[in-house]
Amino acid sequence: MQEFKLVIDGKLVATERHRPVVNPSTETIVGLSPLASRSDLDHAVDAAKRAFPAWAAKSSEERAAFCQRIADRIEANAEDLAHLLTLEQGKPLGGLGSRFEIGGAVAWTRYTASLDLPVEVVQDGPDDRIELHRKPIGVIGAITPWNWPVMIACWHIIPAIRAGNCVVIKPSPNAPLSTLRLVEWINEVLPPGVVNGIADDNDLGAAMSAHPDIAKISFTGSTATGRRIMATAADTLKRLTLELGGNDAGIVLPDADPKAIAEGLFWGAFINSGQTCACLKRLYVHDSLYDAICTALSDYAQTIRIGDGLAEDSALGPLQNARQRDIVAACVRDAVEGGGRILIGGTAPDGKGYFYPVTLVADIDHGAKLVDEEQFGPALPIIRYHDIEEAIAKANDNPSGLGGSVWSSNVEAARKVASRLECGSVWINRHGAIQPNAPFGGVKQSGIGVEFGVDGLKEFTTIQTVFI
Questions:
Q1: Helix (H, G, I), strand (E, B), or coil: what is residue 10?
Q2: Is the CB of residue 394 less than 8 Å from the CB of residue 284?
Q3: Same structural domain for residues 94 and 192?
Q4: What total of structural domains would you count in the chain?
Q5: How far is CA 255 from the centre of its chain?
Q6: Do residues 412 and 428 make contact, with C-beta atoms less than 8 angstroms apart?
Q7: Binning pLDDT at 50, 70 and 90, where does residue 1 land?
């Protein structure tokens, strides 16, 4: 059984304690994750702090070249990393699974490497000039989740180091191995201390967000954890980027074509078995199309094979952990007890693995957990509406505001509805299609700040205004 190690100051560091990482398809042990101590965290932060002056002093062109070399390293080892990712996370190798995720990590890394933040001239007159300079912040503490562990690690690490910062990253204990392997490879490219990787048993997050030598926390995860990070970061007035939970609403207008949009609706809701912050999690359908949408989605869902992620014909895998499977199952039970009608799925299979079937629940409304709370799994409530004002009001009647979508044959009509949705990103006739050149972030309780593109890169800088 392989014992993975921390990566601190360019070296692999063994730990006394380990945590088994379980394959969610088979419930067998994949490997042993190291469990860092508070001393290990301090060591990693100190390494990043010592590496910062030299790294920040490098030219923008030099840092861009380093990031491109990281992309080359990931690309050269993509299949090995995808295999490890599938073993610990459960998603299929093919389709929109692990190979897709590693490809996304490479694409985000290359695009972010291409960005720059040149000096901006605010004023330039005969007697004076005002310049706006973007400067790196210092040591960034990155805390990442288990649903897209490699790609989200790149979302945190690459813009941070591209802007001149150093990083200490802590992945989720549920799926830390692929991130630790990624950090190993990054350290074959970068100077020691620029990127450090630790792992824990969910006991070092508060220490990171309170650490006096960490200048910013970049976090992707639940809203509840985001609140705790804000609280513990307050004493040191850390900068924060928080990409938190979502309960994304999609609205199907009465002129939509059910068969034409069924595939898009399905993957908007069920990519990664629904374990994505910006998945479609509530679907509002006009009464005139309700039955047709239910039928079209059910028909498409029956064509999707769920199985072990290592099987090349699996389109979806299991939930990543037993706790998440139980949350989804509880939401579905509550929906049925409240009068919801199961169109497909609804019962976890017997046997090994944290599998839960694609589940569509009709005749459901607000007040059910499956509608009001983020299920983060393969169960979609389909809610009937009669008037578009009713649909918009219900879509906005939630504390989350990450993403939303409108589905229609009339793009202009959809655009008008989309503009009224209270969310950070909105799509027309698709859902969740994020890309590296478009800023992404939430409103309301779905987060603070944005990721991706120039705006995301700026999040890892401070402004210095120079008056000449």
A1: coil
A2: yes
A3: yes
A4: 2
A5: 32
A6: no
A7: confident
User: Same structural domain for residues 275 and 405?
Assistant: yes
Radius of gyration in angstroms for the set of CA atoms belonging to the chain, rounded to a whole number = 23
227 in the same domain as 349: no
- What are the tens digits of pLDDT across the range 117-176? 999 999 999 999 999 999 999 999 999 999 999 999 999 999 999 999 999 999 999 999
Q: Read off the tokens for 235.
A: 């004493």
Q: Provide the token pair at 115.
A: 């960005």
Residues 273 and 390 in one domain: yes
DSSP symbol at 118: P
Amino acid in position 355: F
Q: Residues 142, 56: one domain?
A: yes
What's the domain range around 115?
6-244+443-467
> 25-42, pLDDT tens digit by residue?
999 999 999 999 999 999
Q: Is the dihedral of CA 36, 67, 108, 93 positive or negative?
A: negative
User: Is there a catalytic annotation at residue 88?
Assistant: no
Question: In Å, how far are 8, 98, 183, 201 from 4, measured between CA atoms?
Answer: 13, 20, 12, 14
Among 243, 374, 451, 459, which one carries the catalytic annotation?
A: 243
Tokens for 414, please give them. 């959809």
List 29's β-bridge partners, or say none. 22
Mean pLDDT of the chain: 98
